[in-house]
């Protein structure tokens, strides 16, 4: 008989390139599967439960995200526990911090701000080592007009055209706190091309494939296939457009999650 439950918020980061997303799926390697497999080992089979703050798609990485751990024994030395957890995790997954929370804390319901980064470059074929983190668009892109297009997404709009397989029941009126396309200063590597770019988006919640569909539309804008008016009209309440270009997953990074 188990009495008291203990609750811990654990922040993690991972390279998503070899994972089929966060959520457990039959016969597929996912981030949640590897986390639970590791806990099952270090807790020596004692009961526990983990719950993520949200899902990421296959090949999407996270610089900082979080999950909640529910267990029936208090962790006396959190630093040592985190070190043991990291020692047994695969090398493309790392725990950053652990803190005890109370039973009132709800990782799903608690209001949170998520920041996503889409990392990309264009023009020439890149070093293959770039592939897990960066999307390469081989066509020329007009970065200046893409910057203007990114700003159009800021604020509260109808994002139904930017949600994959949207239905009439979904919540599509959402608010984007900020959306900026700029030269990349966040991530560096000696095999990166000279110029790389980031689309940085902050908001409380996003629909399925929303950011990748937004990025896909910006790429089409940069190619000259659509214009700024097209994006403006797509965000209007009466819009029935369906965006058809989902940007590749491996350029998308969940950069941070803030709990209010």
TrEMBL record:
Task: List the InterPro entries.
Answer: PsdUridine_synth_cat_dom_sf, PsdUridine_synth_TruA, PsdUridine_synth_TruA_a/b_dom, PsdUridine_synth_TruA_C, TruA/RsuA/RluB/E/F_N
- List of residues binding substrate: 116
Which EC numbers characterise this protein's activity in its record? Answer: 5.4.99.12
An example molecular function term from Gene Ontology annotations: tRNA pseudouridine(38-40) synthase activity
Q: Does the keyword Isomerase apply?
A: yes
Q: Which residues form the Pseudouridine synthase I TruA alpha/beta domain?
A: 150-260
Which keywords, in A-to-Z order, does the entry hold?
A: Isomerase, tRNA processing
What's a Pfam family in this record? Answer: PseudoU_synth_1
Q: Which reaction does it catalyse?
A: uridine(38/39/40) in tRNA = pseudouridine(38/39/40) in tRNA
Known function: Formation of pseudouridine at positions 38, 39 and 40 in the anticodon stem and loop of transfer RNAs.
* Quaternary structure, from the entry: Homodimer.
The protein's name: tRNA pseudouridine synthase A
- What gene is behind this protein? truA
